[in-house]
Design a protein that fits this description.
The protein is an alpha+beta fold. The chain has one domain. 42% of the residues lie in helices and 11% in strands. The protein contains two helices and two strands; from the N terminus they run αββα. It has helices spanning 3-25, 48-55; strands at residues 33-36, 39-42. It has a two-stranded antiparallel sheet. The longest helix has 23 residues, at 3-25. The two termini are 19 Å apart. InterPro entries: P-loop_NTPase. This is Sulfotransferase 6B1-like.
Length: 73
């Protein structure tokens, strides 16, 4: 990945985060959380539709799931 591509992806990510932050600043504290089956999630990046879609997801035997902390630093 070239430096220009990296910068462009970074700029797109930052623009999206600024959009999310702007939307969040217009919400009340109660609107910033989403309660799904008794668990609270940030409403700015989660939706009930996403969780409902995940419930019908059928994993295959050869699927690989990667779970990790986001890169930082």
């Amino acid at each position: 990945m070239s430096e220009t591509e990296t910068k462009t992806k970074r700029e797109k990510f930052l623009a999206e985060m600024q959009k999310v932050a702007a939307e969040a600043s217009k919400k009340t504290p109660g609107e910033l959380v989403l309660n799904y089956k008794g668990v609270l999630y940030p409403s700015t990046i989660c939706s009930i539709e996403t969780f409902q879609a995940l419930e019908s997801l059928e994993a295959r035997e050869d699927d690989v799931i990667i779970v990790t902390y986001p890169k930082c630093g």
